[in-house]
Amino acid sequence: DQQVKQNSPSLSVQEGRISILNCDYTNSMFDYFLWYKKYPAEGPTFLISISSIKDKNEDGRFTVFLNKSAKHLSLHIVPSQPGDSAVYFCAASEENDMRFGAGTRLTVKP
Amino acid sequence: DTAVSQTPKYLVTQMGNDKSIKCEQNLGHDTMYWYKQDSKKFLKIMFSYNNKELIINETVPNRFSPKSPDKAHLNLHINSLELGDSAVYFCASSQMAGGNQPQHFGDGTRLSIL
Asked: What is the mean pLDDT of residues B86-90?
């Protein structure tokens, strides 16, 4: 059972534009959400997170939005840069239980 | 300095063999994890240890046995390897247990069973 879904396996964006990566979850008990970024042959690295008591968290070019009623979160990157090209994983957790999505491969074209 | 290091990076072996993957973190974290990334690219948690004690043990065949000699190390031993064990295995650590703790990952061990 895939409790965290990233329905777009890939996304291509022009440099300087906004990248929007989406994530849906099914378990309403999840109360913390994280985004990780992964380059080839490396492990995922933590990017940004949000608690279920908030609907937005911003860190520089990265903003995560949470819509609890829709069980949906999104990661916005603006402006996108070629170095942002990577696979982005969404994760959701309840206490010690953390579930990851399958990732979205973002390509930022110069 | 690598924060979470796992060895080996690649492991190619025959079905039926026993192998180990080692993981060490130098971040002073209390909690360590093992994940399996399968062919569909999902990262699935296998085990979690907090201060050398097992706190998460997902439905994993008992051929997989984690061992934590101290809180900086979490090794994974796999007996009687099967074709379905082919995957990338990631070790991770976090400052403490809890789903709100960002995890630091190693670069993965790609296990291929012939």
From this structure: 96
